[in-house]
Amino acid sequence: MNLEDKINSFSEAVKDFKVCVIGETIVDKFIEVKYEGQSMKSFCPVFRYAHHDGRSREQQGGASAIANHLRDFVKQVDVITNTGNEIVKTRLIDADDAKKHVEINKFDQGNFGPLEVNTNDYDVVIVADFGHGFCNELKVNGRYHYMTQTNSNNYGYNRMSKWKSFPKKSACMDLREASLQVNRKTDFSSRDAIRELYNYEIGADKLFLTLGKRGSVYYDGSNYVHQDIFKGQIVDTIGAGDTFYAFACLAAELKFEDVNDVMTIPSLAASLSCTWLCNEEEVTLEKLKKHAAQFV
Questions:
Q1: Torsion angle (degrees, nearest 10) of CA 69, 278, 183, 247
Q2: Which of 14, 70, 82, 191 shows its CA 20 to 30 Å from the CA of 106?
Q3: 191: left (phi over 0), alpha (psi -120 to 50) or beta
Q4: In this structure, are residues 40 and 98 in contact, taking their beta carbons and an 8 Å threshold?
Q5: Whole-structure pTM value
Q6: How many domains is the chain partitioned into structurally?
Q7: Residue-wise pLDDT tens for the chain (296 aa)?
């Protein structure tokens, strides 16, 4: 089966899914600047606005971005997220190459309160815990897909094991999050390391692990799959992990004749999302097919 056939097969298999995405919505702001050098009176870089009014571009990230990537593929997507409690990440980026120079975070410290979700209303329930408090009192009656994100605000505190007592369909993490999970830095280059991670307070049937340039790994207790990255144009890698996770959750619901195919669409979608800045676009079936054409 060629790549286009795999996309069509995946699309057909998930088209009737009702999906619920739970987690924090993050507003991503981008201000374009020009680097002017080093301050002569203090050790700090100096920038000026690339546009005289210092205007910013805004995007919906976090749980909302995950939902947006799936809308063109499934029947229904509902989002349960924070309202009235803003989470804003403002980034000063280079006007020429979009390189991030500075990030300024704003977190409204509101009380999100207890939240109960009935999984019986959906075919797929996706929990995206970005570690800003929204999921702290979440109660999900049933099994679901789960991700915890490690960032500068919650480094070392937002680990998968905090949900170890809840049975999950799948779990997804990156290399840094996996190292924190097993309490030591490792590259997870061996099956034994992946097996140890899978058995270390994950509590999920299926594990997806993204390894950056080394691709990604899938493990379900018996089947081990390593997927190389799809090497295409790279504008920005921010959001690629969330894109991978969105489609990994759908793939985890399917049965593949060849288990290796479980990684194909999540990896391809993540590669596509690297061709734009953060979450300024969403994955669609048409875009995915066009992106895939270069790998035939």
A1: 20
A2: 70
A3: alpha
A4: no
A5: 0.92
A6: 1
A7: 899 999 999 999 999 999 999 999 999 999 999 998 888 888 899 999 998 887 888 999 999 999 999 999 999 999 999 987 889 999 999 988 888 999 999 988 666 778 888 889 899 999 999 988 888 888 888 899 999 998 877 877 888 888 888 889 999 999 999 999 998 888 898 999 999 999 999 999 999 999 999 999 999 999 999 999 999 999 999 999 999 999 999 999 999 999 999 999 999 999 999 999 999 999 999 999 999 999 97
**DSSP label at 126?**
E
* CATH number of the domain that residue 88 is part of: 3.40.1190.20
CA distances to 19, 79, 118, 193 from 247, rounded to whole Å, are: 12, 16, 22, 24
- Angle subtended by helix axes 264-273 and 240-251, to nearest 10: 160
CA dist 275 and 233 (Å) reads: 6
Domain that holds residue 139: 3-37+44-295
Of 184, 148, 194, residue with least CA distance to 168: 148
Task: Please identify which residue in the block is written with the tokens 């619901």.
Answer: 253
- Sequence-separated contacts (24+) of 284-290 with Cβ below 8 Å: 284/72, 285/7, 285/11, 285/72, 285/73, 288/7, 289/4, 289/7
Q: What is the rounded distance in angstroms from the CA atom of residue 248 to the CA atom of residue 145?
A: 9
